[in-house]
């Protein structure tokens, strides 16, 4: 009987959370919940990721939010994800996913640098990363960069190195005008709580200092699933489960990097 109560409670929470996301995406009340005070509106934004599918698996709520507010979106992917020898395939999949996420293909750049190869245990040099990101910032007149935090959501070393590369860029006094935000990593319990995590994320953002953290509910969760499905080489059963149960499909909390 106790297990039945727990299961029913979880189902009710799951349904209520999905309803909350749907309600905010369809109603004017989203202005109150998602309002960023104009911080992210109509900016030249560069999302910096490590591998093809990072953008769909982790950052889709942010990309959906920004595209709907007129931001000029760019994606810089620092490797082809060639750990299994499928780099060329994965690169093309990212272009298809970007179409679904409303990011122009011409504004998606995928690198295949010999010193930035995909894989656990393969460390990426922060100075090299900073140099590459700086070139993209200058060439595309970027004024806002978004990337992983120090843990990198999954703890992947490449994600963590990308974060350090962005931090290295910010240390360059000539680029103080560039604003950078990181995707906040959560505990494993929250990470696999699906849409239920929206309540904790909203609460967390509310109690941070104003302007330091923003929480974005996914206004187009079906679009996120469709984008991830474009990564056909990665769209195996356990990633389908991950995307369905991952809180990062439903909500992103971004924290300003100082």
From TrEMBL:
One of its GO terms (molecular function) is N-acetylglucosaminylphosphatidylinositol deacetylase activity. It comes from the Eukaryota. Its EC number is 3.5.1.89. It is an enzyme of class 3 (hydrolase). One of its GO terms (cellular component) is endoplasmic reticulum. SUPFAM superfamilies: LmbE-like. Transmembrane segments: none annotated. PANTHER family: N-ACETYLGLUCOSAMINYL-PHOSPHATIDYLINOSITOL DE-N-ACETYLASE (PTHR12993:SF11), N-ACETYLGLUCOSAMINYL-PHOSPHATIDYLINOSITOL DE-N-ACETYLASE-RELATED (PTHR12993). Belongs to the PIGL family. This is N-acetylglucosaminylphosphatidylinositol deacetylase.
